[in-house]
Amino acid sequence: QADLFLSIHANASEDPKAYGMELYFQNQLAPDEESLFLANAENQNALAAKNSTKLSSQSDIDNIVDDLKRNQRISESFDLSENLFNALPRSAFGKIRNHALRQAPFYVISQTNIPAVLVEVGYISSEADKAKLATPEYQKKLASYLYAGLVKHKDVLDKKKAKSLE
Q1: What pTM, to 2 d.p., does this model score?
Q2: What is the per-residue pLDDT across 29-38, written as a single tens digit (0 to 9) for each?
């Protein structure tokens, strides 16, 4: 009965200079090689846990309807990630601030039927991020920022709904 899915993670990198936050929203294919590589690595773990595969016997019409629904979820996921992104202070994004809002086919967000965003709250491989993430004060700040983004998203949806009823 959920309206959206927010998956919160701590990132890691072999690059010791990597730090800051990233937001990923649903997509079937990543637009850049780095996101695709990261999603593939995380998806291997998720797929290994899944014991059975589902054979598809859908008709072409069912496939078209599923594609339309998926595209709508991707669009709604982008809106959600953008509202979360805009609620966060720019200083939170560190080195990757120009690429902090990304698409990637992470299993955890791509296999939902609702708008979904994966939030990487920082790099545990960065000493600075690791130290901040370990403090309750910073955790509360992160929660407040994410909450503000969710409230903003709800407000945007409410305005769209009200406008469509006019």
Answers
A1: 0.75
A2: 545 566 666 6
Backbone phi, psi, residue 11, to 5°: -90, 170
Distance (Å, whole) CA 129 – CA 121 = 9
Alpha carbon 59 to its chain centroid, in Å, reads 30
Q: What are the 10-residue block averages of pLDDT along the chain, 166 residues in total?
A: 93 88 77 62 65 53 81 90 86 60 86 91 92 94 93 93 88
Q: Order the strands of the 101-103 sheet from edge to edge.
A: 5-11, 116-123, 22-25, 101-103
As a whole number of angstroms, the distance between CA 92 and CA 143 comes to 13
Rounded to whole angstroms, the Cα distance separating 41 from 108 reads 12
Residue 153, SS3 per DSSP: helix
DSSP state of 99: G
- Rounded Cα gap, residues 123 and 71, in angstroms: 30
User: What confidence score (pLDDT) does residue 45 get?
Assistant: 65
CB of 152 closer than 8 Å to CB of 87: yes
